[in-house]
Design goal:
This protein is mainly alpha-helical and about 400 residues long. The chain has one domain. The chain has twelve helices and six strands. The strands form three sheets. It has a two-stranded antiparallel sheet. Strand 4 and strand 5 form a beta hairpin. Helix 1 packs antiparallel against helix 2.
Length: about 400
Amino acid sequence: MRQVRNHIDLVLFLAVLALMVMSLGVVYSASSTYSMVKWNESGRLLERHLIKVGAGIVAIFIFMQIDYRVYRKLTKPALIVAIVLLLVTLALGGELKGASRWLRFGGFGFQPSEFAKYALLFHLCVLITDKKKRIEDFTTGFLPMLIWIVPVTALVLAQPNFSNGAMIFTMSIVLLFIGRAKLLHIAGTLGACVPVLGLVMLMAPYRMQRILSYLGGSGAAGKIHYQLDQAIIGFGNGGVFGLGLGGSRQRELFLPESYGDFVFSIVGEEWGLIGALLTMFVFLLIMLRGLKIAKHAPDDLGRILAFAITTSITLYALVNAGVTLGILPTTGLPMPFVSYGGSSIFFTSIAVGVLLNISMQTDLYPRLAGTPDSIRPIEPVRAAAAGRVS
């Protein structure tokens, strides 16, 4: 090991930090009335969110100094732990809004599906890197990866958490495509799994209500349609320049989940069209910088890992914005770094830390003043010398 100067993509770091800082004001504004009604304390949820944001920033600084190549040997054990945690979650049945999605330790709540998402993506990146051309072979290349994708997706769906399960499956398929798996194998997987996903979606009444709401129905879908209507009203209230921070009307218990999955509506109401576009522009910056890191990464693992992290953040942001605007059916996916929620912020922050570490492996980016030196292996660990991971 040797000490090297710490180089990171400063634009990416500042973009993520800007979203986190912005979320403090937005979450406080969106949750203050609800907190006052429930706990007689307007800043109750802000205090919790501040702790989660702080933990996320600490996670970024820690993981951006750990060489990403060390995960080559850790992704399989991590994924096994994630699957066990998903099984424990189902067995214990931690109830939250009718879904077994949380493990609780005292006052601390933990969502294993967020951990499982990145554990699976990281392990797929390692497998794709190590298998190289063998990925084209169904038995020795494609099937071993499918064996990991299916149980993780199934366990998340069983919570039930259809939106997150569907996103995990989608991102996994995208990685297989980028990894140059045969289109015939991918098409066969989609042909077998998509009907199953469709059946799972239609089996739950509340999911049917969401589809009816998206298609413009009423009646049974009225409550969900009400939530979407209130979100759109929020954007309408904001106009071009917004009502100003703290000026939201929809937060006055009109818009359910105003500080969570529908927080983007509060952004549009208080910051207007300009604020909403600026928020999405920040995500565009994250996407562009992440793809640049992937392009200039020193090895195949760095390239596909950077692509996977960037794609995950971008897709979640686009889907959340699309849902809030009524472009997509209602889901339970948060807006990365902006919505209230500890598990999402924490594990996405870890992923950003890994992405920043990949950026350190090149000389393309300016040094972040004040950060300590990082420790890297003397020579990059190449896939051919790392052994095969199964």
